[in-house]
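Table S2 (continued). Query chain:
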Amino acid sequence: MQNTYLELLKGEKPLDKKAARFLKGVVKKFPYSQHTRMLYVKALMNAGMPAFREELKKATAIAPDRRAFRAFLSGTAQGMNNKPDKRNKKTSNQLAIIDRFLSQNPGLRTNPSDIPEGELSRESIEYHPDLVSETLAQILEKQGQNERAIDIYTKLSLKFPEKSSYFAKKIESLR
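Corresponding output:
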């Protein structure tokens, strides 16, 4: 396995369908290996395999330099021992997909106006009388907040009359 990987890395073996199957296993074992994932994507592209687009996204996300990665995929990277691919329509189309993806410069962006101002934790502990559920009443019971639990069970018995006897027993046990 190690020899095969080194041969692929050095460009001594072609990045074809067979290499893609081999590299898929290596990527599963070492999912954060940038070089392995880049080789895998190149093999998928060369073989015209359908997993190319999805794996391209993953590889681009972890690539330290997207331009170098694109150059590697197109075969124009200097210092790479990979043999130049014969250009065909499929390869050109795949490179166009890569170009579009890279031109969008994907990443996580936040809009500062979407971030609420002030302290949010205070709101989370405020009492909301309209918020009622049996789970909340049970939590309040365990916390020793029997009056609030009784209030919720009373509201639940009105909301669900078919369970009112059950809630009445709960209320009685809390008093």
